[in-house]
Amino acid sequence: AAIEKGGYDHFMLKEIFEQPQTIYDCLRGRLDANAGTITMSGIDKFAEQLVNARRIVMVACGTSWHAGLVAEYIFEELCRTNVEVEYASEFRYRNPVVCEGDVIIAISQSGETADTLVAIETAKTNGAIIMGIVNVVGSSIARASHTGAYTHAGPEIGVASTKAFTAQLAVLTMIALKLGYKKGTLDQQRYLQLLKELESIPEKVAALLQNTEHIKRLAEKYKDSQDFLFLGRGYNFPVALEGALKLKEISYIHAEGYPAAEMKHGPIALVDETLPVVFIATKDSYHEKVISNMQEIKARKGKVIAVINEGDDLSASLADDVIVVPEADEIVAPMLSTVPLQLLAYYVGVAKGLDVDKPRNLAKSVTVE
Ligand code: G6P
């Protein structure tokens, strides 16, 4: 087992550190920024249906559902298609309205999650086109789909999903870019710019993984907290949800993710000097708004941990602690801002002496409902 972990203490850590490679593997052979092309045969085959779809429904569970949520923001921005994101377990049981020609994108690492599988089988009988974004080749969801794209992240052993998530984001972003460009809702200049942005993600993830000591120190500092709040807006709102999920899965600390503005409608009541609030505050079109949310937390004496870009002195001045990530276009930024949150959860779990690869009560793949 020590050999399988490749010198890392846990699979989770190994898989976090594999991300520059797994994202690269996911893009390789598909994205060619110089040629201005994205080749995905499973998507090309259904390009017309995608372009004409009146709506796209993302169906998933857990971390994969968070990838769907990021994709909703990206697809709506780049493709101007109405997107809904559904928990598979809710979607399958509530007699959802599914019409001929609707595109259902099922997102699943394992390809075996029972709720997701049944959800797409039901939608299929109503005439929907099913696209599977799956990691495990030949899995049930891959087989039940009309078409799709594999994430190529390799086997994920740690129960908490890490590298599968960033690979899902890479695949979904490529699909949105293809579709937006084909539809004409994404102009050529922006398309080419985003191809370059996406291509540079693996090296940016590698750069941020160069120095993780400070995240370990933060984990030590905050490991005895009772609760954590994670806040973000826009593309980084689902990242906040994912950061909170990762922390509770691995450290058993209660954590909530919220859209930063929505915290005024509830979570703000929890804020006092003992509450760490993690802000995902990278530079994007929401940045000023996020800063004012940070000020609101500071005014109530919360402890602010901010994930920011280099040179963001204003955010840094409001934060008790910062985690710096490389700058990137907001469309691709979640693949960067997620990584330090995975590490934070990992190091808090380790600092508490917990079994981070096999957290209690959780299963790697939930094949029963
Ligand atoms: C379980 C796992 C999660 C995963 C979720 C969905 O809860 O512990 O890590 O996100 O299932 O799994 P899937 O394989 O469909 O992505």
UniProtKB/TrEMBL annotation:
<dbReference type="GO" id="GO:0005829">
    <property type="term" value="C:cytosol"/>
</dbReference>
<dbReference type="GO" id="GO:0005975">
    <property type="term" value="P:carbohydrate metabolic process"/>
</dbReference>
<dbReference type="GO" id="GO:0006047">
    <property type="term" value="P:UDP-N-acetylglucosamine metabolic process"/>
</dbReference>
<keyword id="KW-0808">Transferase</keyword>
<dbReference type="GO" id="GO:0046349">
    <property type="term" value="P:amino sugar biosynthetic process"/>
</dbReference>
<protein>
    <recommendedName>
        <fullName>Glutamine--fructose-6-phosphate aminotransferase [isomerizing]</fullName>
        <ecNumber>2.6.1.16</ecNumber>
    </recommendedName>
</protein>
<comment type="subunit">
    <text>Homodimer.</text>
</comment>
<dbReference type="GO" id="GO:0004360">
    <property type="term" value="F:glutamine-fructose-6-phosphate transaminase (isomerizing) activity"/>
</dbReference>
<feature type="domain" description="SIS">
    <location>
        <begin position="46"/>
        <end position="185"/>
    </location>
</feature>
<dbReference type="GO" id="GO:0097367">
    <property type="term" value="F:carbohydrate derivative binding"/>
</dbReference>
<feature type="domain" description="SIS">
    <location>
        <begin position="218"/>
        <end position="359"/>
    </location>
</feature>
<keyword id="KW-0963">Cytoplasm</keyword>
<keyword id="KW-0315">Glutamine amidotransferase</keyword>
<dbReference type="GO" id="GO:0006002">
    <property type="term" value="P:fructose 6-phosphate metabolic process"/>
</dbReference>
<comment type="function">
    <text>Catalyzes the first step in hexosamine metabolism, converting fructose-6P into glucosamine-6P using glutamine as a nitrogen source.</text>
</comment>
<keyword id="KW-0677">Repeat</keyword>
<dbReference type="GO" id="GO:0006487">
    <property type="term" value="P:protein N-linked glycosylation"/>
</dbReference>
<feature type="active site" description="For Fru-6P isomerization activity">
    <location>
        <position position="364"/>
    </location>
</feature>
<keyword id="KW-0032">Aminotransferase</keyword>
